[in-house]
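Help! Submission page says 'invalid entity' but I think these are all valid:
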Amino acid sequence: MRTFLDCYPCFLRQVLATLRLVTDDEAEQKRILDLVMARLPTLPLAASPPEIAEVIYGLLARETGIEDPYRELKAAANRRALASLPELEALLAAAPDRLRTAVALAVAGNLMDLGVQHEGFKAAEEIAAHLPREFAIDDEPLFRRRLQTAASLLYIGDNAGEIVADRLLLAEIRRERPELELTFVVRGGPIINDVTIEDARQVGMDAIAEVIASGCRAPALLPGKMGAAVERRFRTADLVIAKGQGNYEALSQEKRPLFFLLQCKCPVVGRDLGVAVGSAVFKAHRGA
Amino acid sequence: MRTFLDCYPCFLRQVLATLRLVTDDEAEQKRILDLVMARLPTLPLAASPPEIAEVIYGLLARETGIEDPYRELKAAANRRALASLPELEALLAAAPDRLRTAVALAVAGNLMDLGVQHEGFKAAEEIAAHLPREFAIDDEPLFRRRLQTAASLLYIGDNAGEIVADRLLLAEIRRERPELELTFVVRGGPIINDVTIEDARQVGMDAIAEVIASGCRAPALLPGKMGAAVERRFRTADLVIAKGQGNYEALSQEKRPLFFLLQCKCPVVGRDLGVAVGSAVFKAHRGA
């Protein structure tokens, strides 16, 4: 998905929230926000929002000298989500359809995205409260069929905190298909509250899947900027799940079949997907 | 109230909405949005948001060649509000406290502000549905006392559509105090969906109050930029009601007593006033 002019105010809002994590000095915040406003016009609308975010947050890191402003918030979100993992597992154990519930939990976890909601991370207990009752696009039955014959699955992660629900889903997939080769993709470096290798380790993702980095520091897996290892697996995996809006924005023009699993949080993505803001989406792309 | 960095994304969002009324050409929208992003950093945060809006919308008018992009929308909003005037008058007639209800209707009308809510104008029927049940700041009793001894009242208008509810309130004030000298202030020229002399004429405000223009084309009455006539009355009126957020932002540092009557629509104004977004406010300023 390309960038729309609606994304400009949203970039500024998110950048300001990030700057406020780094400094209380309003003059310094303004200096960098002004730089962002000078940079935005030079970036083509044909680029996806995560491609633009890569440039802007790179500028932020250089100008502030802070590589990972969300480091503490991410670690705290992971801890809080881990603390309620037993509760979420109990919910799964009681579910009439475990896989379906695990998918729903993973989508509910997507509401923890700090890049969009700045009121603070929701505790994992809230994940259960945000379980979608229905999916606006529901290709879970197709995913379930594909899963029965797949030998490999690549799961492209999204945010910290949420990653605990992703781990739960991958554990459930592993339970259904113990021999499946599972790979979890994290970002190539810290970017907003997105998952990095540290987050994957903190939540024990490496015990369930092989964890590899995307190869770039954008809030998505970017076509054309994938590391060699991830690119090979992205091209050859039998199943790919791309989690969250960022990965949708980056990969919606991709030729290969894959599944998008996300909570729609903004009107621009909603228009692109044909769903309302707030919708849960599990969409088979290119026949998946 | 000065401008905060939070206002930047909001300015861009409002400018984009305005640009879309003028042209469907995204390249042209981007060109002007880019100019706005180049201009914003040069404007001091010490200025109030309406002062910055005056500059930005001046730029828009020059660049697009369209002086009044909201012209049709404003006229339509006035027509719709006028159409349900009998209903609102019936509501007043049935009210246990007419003046209090008229004040509440005027605040409810403030929800029609297109500059903040872009889903389109609400019909005046909806004004009644949005009647505030309580005021977060409620100096209406003080206003009522002051009204008994005042000889003159200056009412600084806000938006089209809403102006019909303002007329209703002024008619009610006139009913209580027939001899009161009433003045209604409109903007000095078209700016977003704010009231101009045309709107005042369309809704018959000139039959109830003397209508004078602010002297500048900002979405507020700006200290230091008032026309001579309005400045004299602003300084000498026994009572002043400043309607809406824009007038609050512009006049909150004023030395003279006045009443702010508004619906709080943004977190920055809410923080300044100490109320939650969505609150109705009737605030005595400087002892009023």
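Support: the input was valid. A stray whitespace character was the problem, and the output above is from the cleaned input. Chain A touches chain B through 18 residues (CB under 8 Å).
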